[in-house]
Amino acid sequence: MRPNLPRRQDESRGLRLWPVGTALALTFSTAITVAAAVFLTGWGLLDVQNLKPERQLTSKTLFDLVKLSFGVVAGAGALVALVVAYRRQRIDEDGALRDATRLHTERFTTAVSQLGEESAAVRLGGVHALAGLADDAPTRDLRQTCIDVLCAYLRLPYTSQTDFPSEDAGARHTYLALREVRHTVIRLIRDHLSLPPEHPRSWEGHDLDFTGVVFDGGDFSGASFRSGMVDFSNATFSGSMVDFNNTTFSGSTVNFNHTKFLDGTVNFNHATFSNGTVNFNGAEFNGSTVRFDYANFNGGTVNFEHAEINNGGIDFNHATISRDSITFSHAAINGGVLRFNDAGFNGGAIHFEGASINGGKLAFRDASFDGSIVNFDRASFNGGTIEFDDTTISGGVVIFTYAAFSGSTTNFNQVTFFDGFVDFGYAVFSSGEISFTDAGFNGETVSFDNAAFNGGTVDFNGAFGSSPSGIFSPSGQPSPFCLNLPRSWQPSTH
To answer: Which residues cross the membrane (predicted)?
Structure first.
């Protein structure tokens, strides 16, 4: 439930009231109509038409008629007084709103002018003044204007610097002062997004425009992004830690499209993603670490389409993915690391269709897949490493159809399959290695049907259970590639 603030467009149009004559005429007409309806209903219910009429007009009857007349006149007077009082209240409320808006505008002008001062202390005062104005804004739109100015201050040109010459202490102090002002803006936004939605000073549901902002630190931990537009597109996270720990993304769309993560750490640990969308489409991860450890994904969508992971890392360790979709379609891992170690997949899906792993690492160690889908359809693996070691696949599906393996290493060592399925159908193996060492197979849980083996090694050393399909030719002999089979799978035993 959001705070119930009036809309500014109502105020800008001015108070619209009908002429008093029209209002009274309409009021009396409505009253007469209602009275007539009540009279006719009572007439029918009491069956008055069948009562025996009295021809004699007594003094008691005359007295009752006089009382009824006075009652009608008094009711009409009360009705007129009610209409006039309502109009007066509306006019007073409109006047109070205009006065509050005028005062707000004056304070707003003063606060904004403080943001342009040279002194960092004065700018800090302006930041706090704007936040206070947003809290006290008489309309929702005026509150949004204050928030827009705070976000616009963060969007001003800014260069993150960490190293200064020892003799240039003044420049360093100036930079640190500006950095403190910017981090104060972020902290105030976080504080207001951490309040319950029904709190009168909650900013939940308002738009937040961080496009192109340079973040060299900042704390959004515990904030709730439940509605409204939140946009970090083309932002840069550099040189320090930005904290989204315990943040909630629910029912809203948050964009990190084409954002750059450089040499810093961004934490989404223990965050909750539900029934909303978070987009990292086209984002670049260059030397930074982005952590989603212990995050909970339930019913929402997180997109990393066309993202590039270059010597950086993204961690989803111990995360829980339920009924959720995480998409890395057409993403590129170029020397970077993407980890889902110890993650739990319960009915969710991860998409890597068309992705390319070029010397990087993709790890699902000790993960569990329960009815989930991991899709590498048409992905290319060029010299990287993919690890599914010690995972449990129960009713889940891992798809490598039409994938291309060239010089990469793919490990399913000590994996346990319970009604799960791994499909390498139509995949092309040019070089590299796929290892299923000590894996346990229950039924035809792995398929190499129609796969092309032009080089490389597939190692089933120590594997047990039913052999995968597609590794033997129709004549019963192994396909022409370097295949390491356990003794029980040797063609002579079939």
So the answer is: 20-45, 65-86
